[in-house]
């Protein structure tokens, strides 16, 4: 069993074996941690595991550095990019010496002009992933870093002279129709596909005309992403005809074989940007990024403008958590008009019930006030 603490009298002891990749690498422990509280005992177990695993991997006289821990971590391409400047700064730093406050300080040092969200995404999350991959335990020893508070976020926004978490303008049918008047064929089809399915840009550009389309059946497949499997969806007849009309596209630089075809022909998520920006300029409409135009637009259309059953919208759009969908992918629109309309609907109902009007109430109030003053 892995190393874990237990109370023995006034102190906490540890028992178990230290494991690496599921295999014991030490003899059985049964010894005092010297701690009087559970948190201190868990910290002792964590440090002992880290020390012994380092010895197991690197020999008796050496402990693991951050760079060596990174080599044990299988990072995806985006995280690997984030880790490069961290390793340049901390490569020789001993893993056991890293404290949560050090991670927060490093984020500020590496990206002084960035937002706190960027600090979390580019530094805190990858450092935490590397360390926890090494510790590889779910028994309380996980490395945790406190996030940045709202006060810290606002202070950093003030220091750098611009706000973070800028409100996204979601796509709409009006915006989409104007955009498509000036967009190239595949950009127009891409925008429509994302808007009516809730697909992310990364999912849409990955679609293969054969593997992800059954257009004779009116179906397309949204590729798996973020814990969701592939989703086959029925799509509107207009989109079916538009996708059928697309020519065969190969991403730039790809070998022209069938397997390399892409439904919209883009190599990566940034490839459509130039044509997208130009279409917005020529149409005289606000620039709305891919994600806001597509997935946010779908969420807004379904939940706010058309107000359909949220379970249906969530299932079709690929949200398992409808609360997340409504919290993140819906936005306030026409606030003043909606509130004023609600005021007047309530007022008219009250006038019918009471036989009074707002103006007669005001007159009565003025008369009573004058009498009191006299």
**What is the radius of gyration computed over CA atoms, rounded to a whole number of angstroms?**
29 Å
Widest β-sheet, arrangement of strands:
1-2-5
Order of helices and strands: EEEEEHHHHHHHHHEEEHHHHHHH
Oligomer: single chain
What separation lies between the terminal Cα atoms?
89 Å
CATH architecture of the largest domain: Orthogonal Bundle
Highest CATH level, the class of the largest domain: Mainly Alpha
Report on the biggest sheet.
3 strands, antiparallel
The CATH topology of the largest domain comes to hpI Integrase, Chain A
How many domains, in number, for the residues?
4
Which stretches are poorly predicted, pLDDT < 50 over at least 5 residues? Answer: none
Secondary structure tally: strands: 8
What integer is the average pLDDT?
A: 88
Shape: globular
CATH superfamily caption of the largest domain: Intergrase catalytic core
**How many helical elements?**
16
Percent of residues in beta strands? 5-15%
How helical, in percent, are the residues? 40-55%
SS-based class: mainly alpha
């Amino acid at each position: 069993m892995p190393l874990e603490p237990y109370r023995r009298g006034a102190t906490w002891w540890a028992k178990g074996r230290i494991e690496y990749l599921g295999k014991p690498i030490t003899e059985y422990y049964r010894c005092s941690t010297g701690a009087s509280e559970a948190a201190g005992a868990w910290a002792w177990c964590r440090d002992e595991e880290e020390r012994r695993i380092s010895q197991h991997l690197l020999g008796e006289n050496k402990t693991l550095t951050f760079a060596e821990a990174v080599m044990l971590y299988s990072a995806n391409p985006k995280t690997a990019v984030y880790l490069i400047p961290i390793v340049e700064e901390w490569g020789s730093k001993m893993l056991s010496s890293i404290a949560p406050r050090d991670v927060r300080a490093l984020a500020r040092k590496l990206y002084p002009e960035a937002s706190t969200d960027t600090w979390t995404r580019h530094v805190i999350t990858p450092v935490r992933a590397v360390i926890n991959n090494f510790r590889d335990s779910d028994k309380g020893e996980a490395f945790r870093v406190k996030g940045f508070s709202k006060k810290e976020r606002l202070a950093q926004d003030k220091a750098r002279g611009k706000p973070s978490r800028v409100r996204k303008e979601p796509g709409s049918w009006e915006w989409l129709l104007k955009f498509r008047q000036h967009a190239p064929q595949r950009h127009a089809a891409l925008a429509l596909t994302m808007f009516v399915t809730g697909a992310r840009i990364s999912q849409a550009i990955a679609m293969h005309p054969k593997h992800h389309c059954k257009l004779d059946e009116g179906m397309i497949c949204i590729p798996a992403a973020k814990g969701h499997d592939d989703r086959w969806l029925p799509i509107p007849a207009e989109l079916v005809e538009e996708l059928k009309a697309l020519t065969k596209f190969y991403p730039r630089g790809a070998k022209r074989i069938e397997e390399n075809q892409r439904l919209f022909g883009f190599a990566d998520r940034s490839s459509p940007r130039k044509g997208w920006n130009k279409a917005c300029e020529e149409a005289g409409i606000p620039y709305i990024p891919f994600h806001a135009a597509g997935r946010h637009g779908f969420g807004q259309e379904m939940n706010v403008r058309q107000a359909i059953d949220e379970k249906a919208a969530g299932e079709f759009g690929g949200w398992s958590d409808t609360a997340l969908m409504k919290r993140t992918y819906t936005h306030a629109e026409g606030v003043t008009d909606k509130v004023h309309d609600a005021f007047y609907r309530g007022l008219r109902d009250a006038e019918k019930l009471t036989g009074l009007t707002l103006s007669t109430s005001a007159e009565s109030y003025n008369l009573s006030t004058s009498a009191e003053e006299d």
